[in-house]
Amino acid sequence: MSSLVDAVNALIHREARLLDEQRYDEWVALFTDDCRYWVPVSPAQQSPREGPSHFHDDIQVMKTRVHRLANPRGFGAEPAPRTVHIISGIAVDEDGETVIASSGQIMLEYRNRDGFEADQRIFGGRVTHHLRHTDDGLRIALKRVDLINAEGPFSAMAALL
């Protein structure tokens, strides 16, 4: 189990580093082709079919989002966000073929918008990864982010938690 815990820790930290370094194509490559990336509007929400979500993306929507972030003139992405992710308390469990990792994460996002809106924002919450063993190592099949202020108002997230 120790080598599995090490592999999960490495994957979660690599994901955060890729996002912070704006290496979005490499970030998308961490996901399976049938993945889901879900940010519900309530931590009590059991399924994306129960109501609206901040995000409920499949791999194609993620690739579109990444393309928009990489475009310097993309709507909502100018100027490009700079982020730093802080990860704590990674717990690892196995459920059959799926490895489930849970962690606390905080993302600081900064954009120099000359006072257009708040230049720095903080997002935090519980992140659950459902990971699958593949020939290329562990890959993310589901990423669920339960924001601590999920029900609160905030402007769109262009950067990814």
Number of strands: 6
**How big is the Rg?**
16 Å
In N-to-C order, the SSE pattern is HHEEHEEEE
Using the alpha-carbon principal axes, give the shape.
globular
Structural class: alpha+beta
Average pLDDT for all residues: 87
Report the major sheet: 6 strands, mixed
Cα distance spanning the termini? 27 Å
- Order of adjacent strands in the largest pleated sheet: 2-1-6-5-4-3
Strand content bin: 35-45%
Q: What count of helical segments does DSSP give?
A: 3
- Fraction of helical residues: 10-25%
Layout of SSEs?
Elements: H1 2-20, H2 24-28, E1 31-40, E2 53-57, H3 59-70, E3 82-95, E4 98-110, E5 120-134, E6 137-147
Parallel strand pairs: 1-6
Antiparallel strand pairs: 1-2, 3-4, 4-5, 5-6
Report on this model:
With about 160 residues, the protein is of the alpha+beta class. It has helices at about 1-20, 25-30, 60-70, and strands at about 30-40, 55, 80-95, 100-110, 120-135, 135-145. It has a six-stranded mixed β-sheet. The two termini are about 25 Å apart. The mean pLDDT is about 85.
